[in-house]
Amino acid sequence: RIHNALLGFQEGSGNLTTKPLAGAFGYLQNATMALVGTFISATTMMANFLREASQKSVERESLMARITGMDRKGSSTAQIIGLAREVAGPSKFTTRQMEEMSATLLSFGLNVERTLPLIGKLGNAFGAGPEQLSMYANAFGQLSGGQMPDVQVLNQMGITKAALKAGGVQFKGSELVSSTEKVMVVMEQIINSKYAKVTALMSKTTEATRANIQDSMDTITFAFGDALNRGLLPFENALSGVLKQIEGSRFAEAIAKALL
Fold first, then answer.
1. DSSP readout, 145-171?
2. What residues contact residue 200 under an 8 Å CB cut-off, 6+ apart?
3. Tell me: the pLDDT tens digits for 17-36?
4. Whole-model pTM over 0.90
């Protein structure tokens, strides 16, 4: 209306043409719309970020509870998280991935400080994805349970029966004579000597750099999520209490009958 009124005044004045002001108001209109659009877009992005941050914080809290609640073989939760960060540092893997792997190893009753660095080296050497990492964890879990891993799995870890024999592991035909602990010791030696150079070189790759960037972004996201969830906790606790009371009453049934 302001735009039209000014144009009408302009036309009635007899002194000025309407084109300059029309053009100016057109630019102003476009700029205003662009500003509103930018504000809405920024608000939407912030809302999405906070929602994602909150969810990631919740997931990490659950992961920490899983790690803390299991037998950590004398290691503290902080030590395990620090080790996960250390193993992830020179690799293609994020700290979050190594934390998840730590929880998996603990569920097998394994010593994380012993096995996680081995899995990190194997993952670097073979460019492993989540399925392969789980396969490595399962292999170490089998050893911990007194069983010899499948030969095909060992081959995918770059470990042959001949290499195990060369390390002192004894077999009688296809049967293992040595203890599974002996197998574990020899596997450690093979992995540490065979893949140490790969791990060192991986730390200089773009993939490792991007994983480190993701770690930094995750840390920032967790900080936002933790703060947001702490602020929401009193409200969520109150809401949970109210819903529990409603759940135990016939309120919902009464409302449904009233509506029908």
1. TT-PPPHHHHHHTT--HHHHHHTT--E
2. 90
3. 445 555 555 666 677 777 77
4. no
